Amino acid sequence: MLLAGGLGGGAVVPATGTSATSGAGDPTVAPTPTPSGTRPPGPVPPIIDPELSLPGNPSDGLRDWGQQVAERTGIPMVAVLAYGYAELVVAHTTPECNLSWTTLAAIGRVESNHGHSGDSSLLPDGRAIPPIYGDPLDGEGGRMLIPDTDGGELDGDEVYDRAVGPMQFIPETWQLEAVDADGDGVADVHNIHDAALAAANYLCRGDRDLTVPADWWAAIHSYNNVSVYADAVFNAANEYGQLSRP
């Protein structure tokens, strides 16, 4: 879960999870998940002005690449397009970050199985239906305690915050990171295009270079500071990197 103070939400992993040594090893010395898979082709697309409603989704230009990656990895194509486009955008806005779509895909899998948590699934436009909400962050069962910050506007809970959407943002963080990635004029936490780009921007905060192992692990732990969670993301990123290669 993205933590507070410019920190955000994610699916809760029990605080009693295994240590980092159970999977990827000590975060300060573990190898970075270098396999990045097939990189999205073509030039970096322009940043979308959220004040404008542009025709079409800019990620549509990645469909040929996305179809191949979806077939190789089993990730829904709409999610692949969201992750790939987010990589291209931050490659333009924050080139020193070196974020790969495989890291976003790994987080998407661990958080919501790419928008397919419970009875939810992704529509062709990227919206998760029905909407995905995490458990109330009430301090019980190993969950963090985060009293309501938005009057229930985003998460429907006026007592505690909940993580929301396919990338599981808590309301406070979504207020900071909300972005319109698909050009429909709306920053929608339930839409994987918008949520993936918001997650990419979040991971690239703090002058991180995600090809540096310590920076990669720090980014993942900032999303959810539980070792078993970070291990799961590492393993998924590595798996997707290898599967997506021709």
From TrEMBL:
It comes from the Bacteria. Residues 30-48 have a biased composition (Pro residues). Residues 163-204 form the Transglycosylase SLT domain. InterPro entries: Lysozyme-like_dom_sf, MltB-like, SLT_2. Residues 17-51 are annotated as: Disordered. One of its GO terms (molecular function) is peptidoglycan lytic transglycosylase activity. GO terms for biological process: peptidoglycan catabolic process. This is Lytic murein transglycosylase. It comes from Natronosporangium hydrolyticum. The lineage of its organism: Bacteria, Bacillati, Actinomycetota, Actinomycetes, Micromonosporales.
